[in-house]
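My main concern about presentation is that the manuscript never shows what a single data entry looks like. The format is easy to grasp once an entry is in front of the reader. For illustration, here is how one protein appears when written out as sequence plus structure tokens:
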Amino acid sequence: MSGTEKPVALLVAPAGEFARAIVARLTADGFHVIAAGGAQADESHALDPRDEAGWEALVIAIAARHHNVAAVINAAGRGMVAAVADTSPADFRALWEANVESAVIGTKWAFRLLRDTASAGSVINLASLAGVRPRADAAAWSAADAAVTHFSKIAAVEAGDLVPPCRVNSVNPGAATAEQIAAAIAWLAGPQSRFVTGTALVVGGENHA
């Protein structure tokens, strides 16, 4: 097995400012970053986050070159601001696929990658504050991210029984900058949070209770 001795972090996200901030923070914290889904990093791969065949090929490729996979970050979702009356079934299905399906499939294959590399790593699913505090103007977004948040808690229970055991958490940002969100993700990816699992980490959620 070749590759790097640095801890490996796989980021699944589209290209953009948010992905760049995550890559920059993980790189600064000493990770070898692999990006898929459009983002760019030390290594970059094409991936439709909802395509299981693509995930299988990606996991095989990474496991052939790397060990010590510290984190898999599923950040392919998106938001949608619209009242219930303005949300069509097609809108809801599209958001559900983008947010929930990508997190569920990404977590499934993250477990496979961690197993195949014998890594006790961290799976991080990006949701939003809407997933823990409903927004009146974002019914579909709130519902989808609530599903991602609760799914992550369920997956965390299963993750503890894997060999080796791993962790699953969600990050639920509100009024936060890309750099603040990236810092939260990097913390969950690192050893300082090794006892944290099944948590929805709220970032920038003023007055959240």
About this structure: The beta strands are 8-12, 32-36, 43-45, 69-74, 122-126, 167-173, 200-203. DSSP finds five helices and seven strands in the chain.
